[in-house]
Design goal:
303 residues, seven-stranded antiparallel β-sheet, single chain, eight-stranded antiparallel β-sheet, 7% helix, 3 helices
Length: 303
């Protein structure tokens, strides 16, 4: 990996396969944060999208959480509704765009946090470890260590291994939520998120035992895949805890895959407590079949 200014370049087999923007110039309403874009296949096809017209706060591949709230006791379920807008004043959006408020829908609340890149703890030719501060209202709420590595698999496929560790350093109880936990069924996005490019035709979504967005969205599966025009992405939870999180899958409206840290209920995070997740993504040229995708995922996770 080479780093220059606000951009780090990730390489695999001597080829540039991803750029990591550490300090992108973003409007406050986009919840400014580092992200990977463009990410490319070995043949150079771009498989991420940033700031698309349909969701300008979608930023390539990275980590984002739409609702981080202060609670008196992070061991109990947080219930929004402490102010007229239906959301606690001490909650902030680290996802970008409008916030979902129970009974009102998506509302521009103007309470967005920032993920600040504090520096690289380690830089190798094929990856890095970065430290980030998640700040809101001038305070540091979360410390993140983000580990990203590239592994060559075949001449037409490589794997991006992303682990994030979020630690509550606020000195208070926090909880992580999603639009689903705030009243919008099926919108449990938050955690790892990959926005793929929108093409003339929607990508095909498939998994180990099912096909289609409807079958995969909200499912707990070892892996899920999106296959577009000349590319395939296969996303795998690489730890037991990560595999417990249901997948967030979109294909028809826009192409994206993410994890669901807060699917059925808010995720409490006591002071000093951490949440760790690891997702490995196979980035391949061409349209992979189910067996080929499964084989590459096994190899990538083992590597």
């Amino acid at each position: 990996m080479t780093s220059s200014g606000a951009v780090a370049v990730l390489r695999c087999g001597g080829r540039s396969v991803a750029r990591y923007l550490t300090r992108p110039a973003l409007a406050p309403g986009h919840a400014p944060r580092p992200y990977l874009h463009p990410v490319t296949t070995p043949a150079g096809r771009t498989v991420t999208e940033a700031r698309p017209a349909d969701h300008p706060h979608h930023l390539g591949a990275g980590v984002a959480v739409p609702d981080v709230a202060v609670v008196a006791d992070a061991s109990v379920t947080y219930v929004a509704g402490h102010d007229p807008a239906g959301q606690d004043p001490a909650s902030y959006d680290f996802w970008g765009g409008p916030s979902f408020v129970r009974g009102r829908g998506y509302v521009e609340l103007g309470r967005h946090g920032v993920q600040r890149h504090d520096g690289f703890k380690l830089c190798d030719p094929d990856g890095f470890v970065a430290e980030l501060s998640w700040t809101a209202a001038g305070e540091r709420w979360l410390r993140e260590y983000r580990t990203v590595a590239a592994t060559c698999l075949t001449g037409s496929a490589w794997a991006l291994d992303l682990t994030f560790s979020l630690t509550n350093v606020s000195g208070r109880g926090l909880s992580l939520g999603s639009p689903a936990t705030n009243g919008r069924p099926g919108a449990a996005y938050g955690g790892f998120f990959w926005r793929a490019p929108k093409e003339a035709a929607a990508p095909v979504a498939f998994g180990p035992a099912g096909d289609g967005e409807e079958a995969l969205h909200g499912a707990r599966a070892d892996w899920v895949a999106l296959a577009g025009a000349g590319w395939t992405l296969v996303f795998a939870g690489a730890t037991e805890e990560t595999r417990r999180d249901p997948w967030f899958v979109r294909a028809a409206e826009y192409p994206a895959v993410g994890s669901s840290l807060a699917h059925d209920a808010r995720l409490p995070l006591a002071a000093g407590e951490s949440v760790v997740r690891r997702v490995v993504t196979v980035v391949a040229d061409g349209r992979l079949g189910r067996e080929e995708a499964a084989a590459l995922v096994r190899r990538a996770v083992a590597a």
